[in-house]
Amino acid sequence: MNDLIEIRSLHPNDLEALMRDLGQPRYRTKQVFQWLGRGVASFDEMSDLPKTLREQLAGRCVLSLPEVVRKQESRDGTIKYLFALRDGNSIETVLMRYEYGDSICLSTQAGCRMGCIFCASFDPEKSRNLSAGEILEQLLAAQRDSGRTVSHVVLMGTGEPLDNYDNVLTFLRLLTHPDGLNLSMRHVSLSTCGLVPRIRELAKLRLQLTLSVSLHAPTNEIRDRLLPVNKKYPIEVLLPACRDYFKETGRRISFEYALIDGVNDSMDCADKLAVLLRGTPVHVNLIPLNAVEHSTLRPSSKEPVRRFQNRLISRNINATVRRSLGGTFPLPAASFGGRETRGRANMRAWGMTHPGVVRESNEDTYTIWVSDDGRRGFFAVCDGMGGAQAGEIASQLAVEAFCAGMEPLKAGAFTMRTAQKQIQQAADDANKSIFTSAKEVTDRKGMGTTMVAMACNCFSVTVGNIGDSRAYLADENGLRQLTEDHSLVSEMIRRGELTQEQALRHPSRNVITRALGVEDSVPCDLFTLETKQGDVLLLCSDGLTGDVSVPEIYYEAYQRGEPETACTRLIELANTRGGHDNITVVLVVF
Ligand code: SF4
After folding, report:
1. Fewer C-beta neighbours within 10 Å, C or N terminus of the chain?
2. How far is the CA of 112 from the centre of ligand 1 (A)?
């Protein structure tokens, strides 16, 4: 067996030499290479080859597909495979379904020797390089098993791809060969913990793949503790290599940053990271760490993750949060098990507003728009202030400015990359319009409004917030407030002067510290998140949260399972609890 040629690792040039050796005409090379790319598991499946050639090939070469040892499938189409290799080693592969197609996360080594302390794949004893064919066969076996076609590849599974440089490069050539799978290099992402000489070598090839660097810390002190490779290639060596990579290839680098509770998730770390990356076109991918058995490291909770992201964004660093999933077998290492579970977007939304039982008029306003195919949408809730008429006008002006700002999204000409800018611009326009109107008309003095707004494209959501109207995410883990209130009592809670309970009854509970229209410019909190099928987003004014508890909201919005009538029920509930304020609810179901 050891002397057999592993045919799937052969580039067409080498295959041609083999065919020559076997006395075959040149056209056989293409024929065989095409069969190999189709994922056959034996030479017998190459039905248009003469039997004698199939026998010759079987005598000289080895051809098989890895065996599926374990398979876990989630309802959104993510499949996690554990494959057995020919030598008994096992590797993990994850097939994911996205809006843009099926993506696969491949392993490049069996066990990894890099020793990142948060990683379940570290196993120097079992570590060995996978051949180009073995890397490719994960994809072929997953396609064959699932009946799906992979359009994107990420090298983020077990192993450090640049530690297996030659085989990975051969794999890339096989993957992108026009006679084979013919995948675009732009659809390939390669993740490294930072092997600087290899990054520099790769840069010279000017491949159009995405390089993803596991940074995870803004200082050597922290990074040394997390990734032993940092002792050899510290940050001051790694980052210039990344900048040069960008200069050579024109491809923006993606930095992975796993947020670990109390280790690298402070605002100081965010500030240092922003300084470190300033001036380089980068994207920071924040990943809540997956807990690893026997490790004391814990993932940061959701609030610090959001704050960290906001801080980077406010420092002009492009940052998104990748959703983290659990898993019962160790997942691809460099991804920390973090993969979204998503299916086809089919967004639906409902909204309702009510004056409540105490107020005579309704100063709340909301807007909902969802495209016919359920893939794009925008939503806003505004809670006006400054008196019945003025508050109503202010919230209406804000919603109008927001809708005008979202017109490009309606036309499909709006990218989520610019969504934050677009929402901030809409908030600026709304602010200007309310501020001017309040100055010009005497009885509108002091008017203003809160605004919580969202733009959604498939499962990507951008949220903007000013004031104390709120956005929540409800999923299988419960109800989580996404936005931070800009109110006096929230400040006091943050300073430890009040509890949540006390805040509900505090005489200043309605004092807002940030609102549209009350100053000549007002910053908007902006952040993005990824949702998945079945998630519910809730936007509401404080009329709801003032009277209805979090468990009740969660039950009505998510657990009860009747989203069509949930808005009505939530408003009824708020009114039965006193209906002290105007109440507005918008529910978005994915
Ligand atoms: S994170 Fe990647 S490089 Fe680090 S030990 Fe795990 S597989 Fe190896």
Report:
1. N
2. 6
pTM more than 0.85 = no
Phi then psi for 471, rounded to 5 degrees? -120, 140
385 lines ligand 1 (CB under 6 A): no
Spell out the domains of the chain, with CATH numbers in brackets: 5-62 (1.10.150.530), 66-192 (3.20.20.70), 234-331 (3.80.30.10), 348-589 (3.60.40.10)
Q: For ligand 1, atom 7, which residue shows the shortest CA distance? A: 159
CA of 237 to the centre of ligand 1 (A): 19
The CA distance from 237 to 339, in Å, is: 30
* pLDDT tens digits for range 166-222: 999 999 999 999 999 999 999 999 999 999 999 999 999 999 999 999 999 999 999
Check if 118 has its Cβ closer than 6 Å to any atom of ligand 1: no
What does the alpha-carbon distance between residue 185 and residue 212 come to, in Å, rounded to a whole number? 14
Q: Is the CB of 92 under 6 A from ligand 1?
A: no
What CA–CA distances, in Å, run from 528 to 349, 387, 457, 539, 579?
19, 33, 11, 15, 32
3-class DSSP state of 480: strand
Whose tokens are 């009860």? That residue is 560
